[in-house]
Amino acid sequence: MENELFKLWPTLILKKKFDNHNLYKDNLLEFIKFYKKKYPVGREASENKNLYESNYDITNFVQENKSLYNLIEFIGEGFKTVAYNANKEAWENKNIDSKDIRAKITSMWFIDYLEDGFVFPHIHSNSSWSMVYYLDLGNPDNEEVSTSGTYFISPYNKSDSSDYGNFFSREASRSIIGKEGDALFFPSTLIHSSYPSVNKKRVIFSANCYFEKIK
Question: Of 2.30.30.100, 2.60.120.620, 3.60.150.10, 1.10.10.60, which CATH number belongs to 14-155+169-213?
Fold first, then answer.
């Protein structure tokens, strides 16, 4: 009998650059101004503090906005990439061809942070994958945790021993820093949050996605 190594329950986070960010940034910011003027009162949520959050209806504006359309195309590709890498073995074991699986964005929204604005730790429901796209950080090269950092909490119990054999499980959390134009794709059940914004600029888009078999 051959030896087997099982790598179970992977936690994958994809960091992906939107190559057309500079081309569509200004138009996407204009869309946000239009939306906030149309809906001056943002969505209220218990996890939010000092920010404007849109409703989860941004996909409704895709047909009339080329920039949104291209952003959603990018988001869809990111979801497919991370989901394929996470599910490749499981799909193969069930004889599922990845070509027969399609991604469906169930909700999409934006957040315009005010000074000291942040989002408390939370998860997303009714989806398998979520993402955040850093649209405007005030400085395209800004990599400060308070501006472009997303905070993730480990889904595993943290080891409290000094055994070098479980070094991999000692990290209880991780902050992943991005630049303008970067997007992070991660499991919807992974607890995450943002840091209080010390700058006057932090605008992001987020989306949720689930996958279904093409009939």
Answer: 2.60.120.620
